[in-house]
Every structure is written in structure tokens, then in C-alpha cells.
Design brief:
Length: 473
């Protein structure tokens, strides 16, 4: 029924031809029976998806521990709460270079059972996809990192640096059980020069891989509230000072505002390269973005049609909660709106609030920034490092696509590692761009990953880790 997903392992010459400068000679591909490994990878991937980890990661942690220990890899299970364990494992290198960390998170977001065609923890294979919660986010990275450890161990890979593996708990909605705990209590065990985590991936359109993204920086959540105040009174005598009316006005102004566009190295490269791989109309649009005479019209187009792209252009504001009033015949004296502000990493927030104040232009409305600025993002990682080059070469080799550096608009766990000096790159498996609108994306009502992504993502992961960590001689 199932076609073999992989062509045989690439000959070394092919890899060299696509720019993988250094192979790991002793992670000899010949030692690996890829069709067999791919079947094993699919089984492990399905097993991970079949373990419900919406409330506790214990089942996944046990599975990962058992799989690694069966290969003779030493594993430590560490937890702030025994029901929320993390797994750390390490394969030693010769210490010439600092360690390389590979990680995936073991929890998933919750499910609404009524929305699923195939049971959410069945990992059903149908029509070229694997269905289930976590198939994309993030059991795709978790299985690939785990299988890479298995293969490094089995092939007795000679490494210039340790490869550290982390199966991380509690990524979805708070990091207290996962990366926050690991960074504060177990940092020496996970400290690395560079790391791979989630946040990028290969975009397929019409079933064909078009380009890959690597997340190299991310925006910083930095919320605020708008508070409107006015005289309270009897609802039968409307006032021009009505706090709700002032707030509504301010919310509309700020929501439709086009904040100043500012590109950085990552986003500039992203749009330049995106233009190269896009259809002509889209390509023209991305180029026009940089043309002062045409930029405003493109931004308006993106605001309406491509909100995710639009958000990369500037610090963004989304009003997400609105509160005011308590009785239908009482004019309230106060109304508030909660804003989700996602700041460019180098945004000067006091100056940005000042701009907002000018846009709102209403003394009855106060901007109250959140006390803390949320997570600290850390500096962007280099897009000319050896690790980035290895990622580019691996994507090219496995999928035949170019790599675009990406600024994530959402926050990830990498924001906790980058400030500690770990050069984190966000990667991911191939998924269908169309699936986001069809409701099969990460966090959607249903979730699925193309079946062929299982073998290809492992290939990509293996190639990257062996080029970054393999012994060079
Ligand atoms: Zn995730």
C-alpha cells in the first residue's frame, strides 16, 4: 500500500554538490538501512501521537526514555511536577566544540473531540497524511530528534561535540514545567552553543515543497491596556463623555492603524527571497513593499489578505478583550481594552506608546503598559553561521528548496535559551500551506502532517546534526 518514502541515502558526492561542506565520515550512511529506519521512524512517530499528552507528558516521557535506553543511551528524567517530566539525554563527542542541543516539546494543545474525523490520538494514515493532535506541533520535531539520537548511537557516530536531546514538557501556555524549569534548574545539562527547536519548516503548495523557513528571531509580547474614563450617570441622559464610546473610538483607531514599517536583517532577507520563490503577482508585491511610493498600498493588501506577513513589518497591536459597564441603564465611568502588542525585538516601547497616544488623540483614554515586558527575546541568531549554512544545505538536499530566515510573530521557548547564549534555530517538517485555512494546521480543530514528511524530516534532521556535530577529519 505504502510507497517507499525515501530514495536511497544520498551518495557523498551529491551532498557535497549541494554545499554540505563537511560530512561526518564515521556516521557512515552505509551503516543505516534507511527503508527499515523509515518504517521504524513512522512507528515511533505514530506511537508518540497516540499518547495523549494534553494534560500530562508522563506517557510520552516514558516512551522516549524506553526508546533511548533500549539503545544504551543514558537518560535523565527531571521534573518540577512528577506528572510533567522532561527528558535529557546526551551522546558524547570529543569535546573539540561546544555541544549541540536538539529538542521537541512533548505536550500538545487540547482537543475538541466532536471536530475530529479520525480520533485525535489515533495517528491514522489516510490519503497521504497522518492525522492526530501533535502530528505537526511538536511531535514531528520530537520524533526526529529522538530518532537522530538513536541513529547516532547505533552507528557509533564520531562527534566533534556532544549532542544533547531534550523532550520538553509544558511548552503550550507557559514554560514553568518545561524550558523555564530546565533553564533555571538544569542549565549545565542542556547548555549548548546552538540548538534546533520548533518554529520553521518546509512550505508545500499544491503538494510541492516551495521553500523552507528557519526561525532566527521572534517578536516580544508586550501588552498594554487602554483605560477610558468619563462621567457616570443615568442611561436616559447620554453624554459625550461616555467612557465606552471613547474607548470604542480609541480601539478602532489603534486596530486599523498601520504602525511604522521597519525591517531588520532577517525580515529583509525573508522578503527578498520570498519574492524569488513567489508567483509573479506576489513577487511584485514583495518587491513593492520596499518602494516608498508603493509600500502603503502593499501594506494595506497584506493587512487584509496576509495578516501573518503584515505582522512581520512592524510592532503590531490587536485589541483582544474589552470590558465596560455593568447595568443597561447606568453610564459607566470606566471602560478598558486589553491589547496584545507584539514588539519588534529592538522596539523603543516608550516611544511607541507615545505614537499610539498621538493616533488615539483623546485625553480621556490612557495607555497603561503591562508592568513587565514579558519574555526577553535575546538577540537574533546569525544567518551566516555554520549551523545556518548546514540547515540551508540540508533543506536544499532533502527538499530541493531555498531557505528563508524567519522572524516569528509569536513567542517560543527559544526566547529563554537565546538570552543564555544558545544560538537557537527554529525548524520543522514539511506541511501544506493550504491546510491552515482548511483547519488542519497546528492548534486547529484537526491536525495532520503529510506522510512523506516523516521520512524527509528525519533525513533533514540527521543530515543537519551530522554536519554540525560530526567529527571532521
Ligand atoms: Zn509547538
Amino acid at each position: 500500500m505504502r510507497k517507499p518514502l525515501l530514495t536511497p541515502w544520498f551518495p557523498a558526492a551529491a551532498l557535497l554538490a549541494v554545499g554540505v561542506s563537511v560530512l561526518a565520515p564515521n556516521t557512515s550512511a552505509q551503516q543505516i538501512d534507511w527503508p527499515k529506519v523509515n518504517d521504524e521512524a513512522m512507528r515511533n512517530y505514530q506511537s508518540l501521537v497516540q499518547i495523549d499528552s494534553t494534560a500530562t507528558e508522563a506517557g510520552v516521557a516514558q516512551f522516549v526514555k524506553k526508546t533511548l535506553e533500549a539503545e544504551g543511551i543514558q537518560v535523565s528524567m527531571v521534573a518540577r511536577d512528577p506528572a510533567r517530566p522532561n527528558i535529557i539525554a546526551r551522546i558524547k563527542g570529543n569535546g573539540t566544540k561546544k555541544p549541540f542541543l536538539i529538542m521537541g516539546h512533548s505536550d500538545t494543545v487540547k482537543i475538541d473531540l466532536s471536530k475530529w474525523t479520525f480520533p485525535p490520538f489515533s495517528a491514522t494514515r489516510s490519503g497521504g497524511y497522518v492525522y492526530g493532535r501533535g502530528t505537526l506541533d511538536d511531535k514531528s520535531n520530537l520524533f526526529a530528534a529522538m530518532m537522530t539520537m538513536v541513529l547516532l548511537q547505533r552507528t557509533h557516530a564520531r562527534l566533534d561535540r556532544d549532542v544533547i536531546f531534550v523532550s520538553e514538557a509544558g511548552e503550550e501556555g507557559g514554560s514553568n514545567m518545561g524550558i523555564g524549569y530546565l533553564v533555571s534548574e538544569h542549565f549545565p545539562e542542556i547548555e549548548a552553543e546552538a540548538c534546533l527547536a520548533e518554529g520553521g519548516g518546509v512550505i508545500r503548495r499544491g503538494g510541492v515543497a516551495r521553500f523552507a523557513t528557519v526561525q532566527t528571531m521572534e517578536k516580544i509580547p508586550s501588552g498594554a491596556r487602554l483605560v477610558a474614563r468619563g462621567p457616570s450617570g443615568h442611561g436616559s441622559r447620554p453624554t459625550r463623555g461616555n467612557a465606552i464610546a471613547h474607548l470604542s473610538d480609541a480601539v478602532a483607531k489603534i486596530a486599523y492603524w498601520d504602525p511604522p514599517m521597519r525591517l531588520n536583517d532577517t525580515t529583509r532577507t525573508y522578503f527578498e527571497k520570498l519574492a524569488q520563490v513567489s508567483e509573479p503577482a506576489d513577487a511584485a508585491r514583495f518587491r513593492d513593499l520596499l518602494d516608498p511610493a508603493r509600500s502603503a498600498a502593499v501594506r494595506e493588501y497584506l493587512a487584509i489578505n496576509e495578516p501573518a506577513t503584515y505582522s512581520m513589518l512592524h510592532t503590531s497591536i490587536s485589541p483582544n478583550i474589552i470590558q465596560g459597564g455593568f447595568q443597561s441603564n447606568v453610564i459607566p465611568s470606566e471602560a478598558t481594552a486589553t491589547l496584545d502588542i507584539r514588539a519588534l525585538p529592538d522596539e523603543n516601547m516608550p516611544a511607541f506608546y507615545e505614537l499610539m497616544r498621538k493616533v488615539i488623540n483623546d485625553p480621556a483614554v490612557e495607555i497603561v503598559p503591562n508592568a513587565s515586558r514579558g519574555r526577553v527575546a535575546g538577540p537574533p541568531v546569525s544567518i551566516s553561521s555554520d549551523v545556518y549554512k548546514a540547515l540551508e544545505a540540508s533543506f536544499k538536499s532533502v527538499y530541493g528548496v531555498p531557505t528563508l530566515p524567519l522572524m516569528g510573530t509569536g513567542a517560543t521557548d527559544m526566547s529563554q535559551l537565546r538570552p543564555r547564549g544558545v544560538q537557537c534555530y527554529g525548524v520543522g517538517a514539511a506541511r501544506d500551506d493550504e491546510d491552515v485555512l482548511k483547519g488542519f494546521g497546528a492548534h486547529s480543530d484537526q491536525e495532520r502532517m503529510p506522510e512523506e514528511s516523516v521520512a524527509k524530516h528525519l533525513q533533514f534532521y540527521w543530515l543537519t546534526v551530522t554536519s554540525v556535530a560530526g567529527a571532521k577529519f
